[in-house]
Each structure stands twice: as C-alpha cells, then as structure tokens.
Amino acid sequence: MNALPLMESIGTVAALGAGGGGGFFMVKWLFEYFAGRHDAREQRIDGGTDKLIERLERRVEALTARLDKVESDLSDCKRKHAESDAEVLRLKAIIDGKGEIAQRAAQVVAADRVEGQGKV
C-alpha cells in the first residue's frame, strides 16, 4: 500500500495549516497590538479632553455667578442713582423756592420803602 505518500500528504497539509494558522494569529496579534496602542493614545487624549471640558464648565459656572452679581450690583447702582437724581431735583426746587421767596421779600421791602418815602 501506499501509506507513505498519504502520510507525507497529511504531514504537508498539517504543516501548511499550522503555518497558515500561526501566521494568521501573528498578523492578528500585530494589528491588535498597534490598534491597542492607538486606543490607549485615544483614551489618554479623551481623558485630557474630559478634564479640559470639566475645567471649562467650572469656569463658565464661576463666570455666570460673577455676571449675576455684577448685574445685581448694577441694578442697585441704577436704583440709587435714580434716588439721587430725585433728591437733587427736590433740593433744586427748594433752592428755587427760597430764591423766589427772597425776591418777593425784597419786592415787599422795596415797596414798603417806596410807600414809606411817599408818606414822609
């Protein structure tokens, strides 16, 4: 029987299968190794990006709180300014009123003098 050539064929096929399978797993391992390194790099970048986003969000919250305070202070200033303007107008009216009173008093005194001179 020709068992020897059959055994040689089986050996050759087995060697080809083992070599092909080993080569396939080697190529697969290389791709996974480089892809894994790439994924690790992406994870580091993503981690850095996440930290940056968190810091920016905290900064935006702080600036928003500060803006709210500034707007509140500005509103208070506008209210106090309006009160001051009203007080200035009130005081001007008082001053104008006193000026008119002084003018009328001067007119009365002058009229009394004129009247007094006419009687003498």
Q: Can you describe what's shown?
A:
The chain has one helix spanning 3-119. It is an all-alpha fold and 120 residues long. It is rod-shaped. The model has no long low-confidence stretch (mean pLDDT 83). It has 1 helix and no strands.
TL;DR of this structure?
The chain has 120 residues and is mostly helical. It has one helix at 3-119. It is rod-shaped.
Name its key features.
120 residues, 98% helix, mainly alpha
The assigned structural class equals mainly alpha
Question: Number of helix segments?
Answer: 1
State the helicity in percent bands: over 70%
Globally, the shape reads rod-shaped
Regions with little confidence, pLDDT below 50 for 5+ residues: none
Taken as a percent bin, the fraction of beta residues is: under 5%
What does the radius of gyration come to?
Answer: 51 Å
Number of strands: 0
Largest sheet: none
Span between termini: 176 Å
Mean pLDDT: 83
Would you list the SSEs in sequence order as H and E? H
